[in-house]
Amino acid sequence: MSENKEPHVAKFVYDFTEGNKDLKDLLGGKGANLAEMTNLGLPVPPGFTITTDACKVYLDSGEEPAALRDEVSAHLDALEQRMGKKLGQADDPLLVSVRSGAKFSMPGMMDTVLNIGLSDKSVQGLAAQAGDDRFAWDSYRRLIQMFGKTVLGVDGDLFEEALDKAKEAKKVTVDTDLEAADLKKLVTAFKKIVKKEAGRDFPQDAREQMDLAIHAVFDSWNTDRAKLYRRQERIPGDLGTAVNVCSMVFGNLGPDSGTGVAFTRDPASGHQGVYGDYLQNAQGEDVVAGIRNTVPLAELEQIDKKSYDQLMQIMETLENHYKDLCDIEFTIERGQLWMLQTRVGKRTAGAAFRIATQLVDQGLIDEAEALQRVTGAQLAQLMFPRFDEDAKVAQVGRGIAASPGAAVGKAVFDSYTAVKWSRSGEKVILVRRETNPDDLDGMIAAEGILTSRGGKTSHAAVVARGMGKTCVCGAEELEVDTKRRRMTVPGGHVVEEGDLISIDGSSGKVYLGEVPVVPSPVVEYFEGRMHAGANDADELVEAVHRIMAFADRKRRLRVRANADNAEDAMRARRFGAQGIGLCRTEHMFLGDRRELVERLILADTEAEREESLKALLPLQKQDFVELFSAMDGLPVTIRLLDPPLHEFLPDITELSVRVALAESRQEPHENELRLLQAVHRLHEQNPMLGLRGVRLGLVIPGLFTMQVRAIAEAAAERKNAKGDPRAEIMIPLVGTVQELEIVREEADQVVAEVEAATGVELKLSIGTMIELPRAALTAGQIAEAAEFFSFGTNDLTQTVWGFSRDDVEASFFTAYLEKGIFGVSPFETIDKDGVGSLVKLAAEAGRRTRPDLKLGVCGEHGGDPESVHFFHQVGLDYVSCSPFRIPVARLEAGRAAITANGSDHR
């Protein structure tokens, strides 16, 4: 008999005392962490969180859940009782903020409204209670401005223009110099803007303000900028946002009040110390918006030592509790410190590696957790070149080093131009007084961001660090004029739109023109030219070395290189490659050898064909001797010739013109005519799906056997020289086992002949690329003739999707990404549902036939961090990628093993 159970009733609202940091899916990151700080006994203003579940219902149906209003009312009543005042009451009103808070941090992308509860009546009560008319009217004008823009959709520039006019009339430059009477007039002006632009009066009912603000925060989940940010950061679009309703505390109550953002460590470098920004007599949005330049957090010690000491103690508590760099927002209200938010802070790539190893040394985390705190994408950033500090280039300014990197581009002064020029192939630097969330698409398009206002916690800095984008903020000596599209630098020089500038996100320096770059110290480390020492670069190298060593100890996946010559192979080996997973022999036939291949393809007689093959054999053999020498003792997978025929034949149009001109001039053209006839005979409408790969080897007798002979003879020569060649021969574009069997039989015969002629025993394995859907679907049969599979995921993606990569990426991929059809290009990160399913199916079927079947991947996905995790999960033995991406693949292979608890998923 089954047990009767009460039906589950969804709970849509949680008090800050009810949640914890592990409920981010439900309460969002902000709500979960406010609850956690409340549980820790830290000074958090009382409030409650509306769950992401409520948001999902609202977004799906267009209406809030039926129970939500009553739940909000119950929690609001409890909040009013706790605070001893009611929302929006005429005397001493309770005011609240309504703030977004998704599971994953999306800085500035969604909406916030402060000071809800103010009205024409309650502003008087607030003024009387605070004993400060200016504060009350300043808070009211902020509410109307934020509410008008966020909730009612009024153009924010209209409010800014009215504010600028008020300052001009008063002959002041900052809003803190406006007096109560000025702000009261501004409130009147703002209300007129709302009436004209929104077609309604600013709401005087406090509950209506709050309900409309909650809906606006829900709606902000699906704004264009939020969608763009999620695509950029690969955040799922179905999570929704929580809404946090928090009793207001005020940083704009005078010089003994203020607001700030603090980091427990420097998010740019990872160094320990006092990092952050503070702004007296301000509300929180003033800091992140960058509209007034802040003072360094360290100066708070002189301004308000009591609050400073308390903040330092809380920061230590939070870092030890979260065991990570924490990003903290706080407000001081007349000497009382309040915590408004904490989260694990975004950091630069260098800071991520330093902090991870520092926390290991402090005993807060172990090596496995340290490995999970860094990513392959961050390591790739550290490998980018940096500016040559000895270069003789004019420095014209210096700001705050907000996000490191060396960025060079043409100065542009708005987001639209940044996107437009970038799509035309121009590299640009987005220059603004300060950025706001509407600048996101321009920030993504730009090489770097430069602002004349703001600090390390401004919108530009936080978003740029999250994207790994170079950023310099708060370069005050630069006068940015976005309307005239120009920037004036000290000395009077004017930088017009389109002029080339360089910005250094590691030092904060701004230069005119292009600064030369030098290799990254991390690349020099991988190349063996740099070791750990005492300076800052060496500290970073030491951190990278320690993390990489642990990743190498933990990973199951081996990492090989895609390399076609000895030079690339040797570099790959220095970068940690454990063999070559793909040597593309067609690259060996370009240049001087192209004519020999052309003669081979167009040969009319067996004698002509044999002559061409005879000429190619020693050249191929020498290629492989050099390759085996460079990778001695490590496996080298050599793919037999796989280009479409047209790559080795003359262009049909050019050849036709040559023949026509020769005929018109009555010049001899027998050879050109013969060649044109052959090209016409072999011409293909779709050469990528035509005579290439194994098909070419079957149609042109002797081509593959020549290559196999060259490989075998080179291996024998290396063995005689006491080397240890480990050749693997890979047959490309196989679609059926019969193709592989024919080629394999011929190859085995050639290898046996070379063994007999040289007296050297050769152990050459023969396998195939799985790059056609049919090959994946019949992998069990193909494994009967193959000793290894290497998944060619570039072609497999093309054939699964029906895409021609060379065409689609330029034609419609941008639209697909913008419309959310793709979160990321399937050529960049493997399509797990489609292409990935075929890889998994083929791997399992192949191993059922041949349990010792070696499995690898050699497409571009082999160096993609997310794809590496997938290849670990489906049980591949190795990934292969370009030499520069080898460290990234090594790191991610280690992280994949940790994620899977080191288990083997075969």
TrEMBL record:
Residues 426-508 form the PEP-utilising enzyme mobile domain. The active site is at H459, C858. The keyword Membrane does not apply. Pfam families: PEP-utilizers, PEP-utilizers_C, PPDK_N. Residues 542-894 form the PEP-utilising enzyme C-terminal domain. Keywords: ATP-binding, Kinase, Magnesium, Metal-binding, Nucleotide-binding, Pyruvate, Transferase. GO terms for molecular function: ATP binding; kinase activity; metal ion binding; pyruvate, phosphate dikinase activity. It comes from the Bacteria. It catalyses: pyruvate + phosphate + ATP = phosphoenolpyruvate + AMP + diphosphate + H(+). SUPFAM superfamilies: Glutathione synthetase ATP-binding domain-like, Phosphoenolpyruvate/pyruvate domain, Phosphohistidine domain. Its EC number is 2.7.9.1. Mg(2+) binds at E771, D795. Substrate binds at R584, R639, E771, G792, T793, N794, D795. Its cofactor is Mg(2+). Residues 66-293, 300-350 form the Pyruvate phosphate dikinase AMP/ATP-binding domain. Belongs to the PEP-utilizing enzyme family. This is Pyruvate, phosphate dikinase. It comes from Streptomyces griseorubiginosus.
